[in-house]
């Protein structure tokens, strides 16, 4: 007969079922990067979107700030197994940014200052699922967390929310980015524990 600790059954989970399998809750905001922190001033920051046909769209920092902003509160999940609940960001929805971009592509490569890349299906950036954020908790996004602007795709593992974003390249076919080439899962759904190839 097994031993059951008092209170083991019937206790409400602190995360209300929002914690994906294999994850633990943290109050901190760990800093993890593939290389050195990039420091990009807003005076030289620029974002480009290049379609599969080579058509290029560009936004300066002032252009980005002129777009309507949203303030989503979302849970974020790192592939290293931490989850942080109820994080609040401010930024521009990809629905707004890509509204006038004509593309038939199915995939996007996020490209960053410093050379980091990560691939995503275009559908995962639309319909209110992704933002280019420039504030965290009401404050300007610090460089250690991807400032001045990063991608935020909270329904996927956090490596897909690329720091120091400088561009989105539309692709007809999927191709792996930095961590995906090194063995991380090409999609990265935390609820399916898609951490590595074969997961």
Question: What does this entry look like structurally?
Answer:
- The longest helix is centred in the first third of the chain and has 6 residues, at 61-66.
- The chain has three helices and eleven strands.
- Strands 1, 4, 5, 8, 9 and 10 form a six-stranded mixed beta sheet that branches. A five-stranded mixed beta sheet has the order 3-2-11-6-7.
- It has helices at 61-66, 94-97, 178-181, and strands spanning 24-25, 46-50, 56-60, 73-77, 82-93, 107-112, 117-121, 131-136, 139-140, 150-152, 165-171.
- Helices cover 7% and strands 29% of the residues.
- Mean pLDDT is 91; it is low at 1-12.
- The protein has one domain (47-192): Oxidoreductase, molybdopterin-binding domain (Sulfite Oxidase, Chain A, domain 2).
- The two termini are 34 Å apart.
- It is globular and about 45 Å long.
- The protein has 199 residues and is mostly beta strands.
């Amino acid at each position: 007969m097994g031993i059951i600790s008092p209170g083991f059954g019937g206790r409400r989970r602190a995360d209300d079922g929002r914690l994906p399998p294999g994850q633990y809750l943290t109050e901190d905001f760990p800093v993890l990067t593939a290389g050195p922190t990039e420091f990009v001033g807003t005076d030289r920051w620029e974002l480009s979107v290049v379609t599969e046909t080579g058509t290029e769209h560009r936004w300066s920092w002032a252009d980005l700030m002129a777009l309507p902003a949203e303030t989503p509160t979302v849970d974020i999940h790192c592939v290293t197994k931490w989850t942080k609940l109820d994080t609040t960001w401010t930024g521009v929805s990809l629905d707004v940014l890509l509204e006038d971009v004509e593309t038939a592509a199915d995939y996007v490569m996020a490209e960053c200052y410093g050379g980091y890349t990560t691939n995503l299906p275009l559908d995962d950036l639309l319909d209110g699922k992704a933002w280019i954020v420039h504030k965290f908790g009401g404050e300007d996004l610090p460089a250690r967390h991807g400032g001045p602007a990063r991608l935020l795709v909270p329904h996927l593992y956090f490596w897909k929310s690329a720091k120091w974003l400088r561009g989105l390249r539309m692709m007809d076919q999927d191709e792996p980015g930095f961590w995906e080439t090194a063995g991380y899962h090409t999609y990265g759904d935390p609820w399916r524990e898609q951490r590595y190839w074969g997961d």
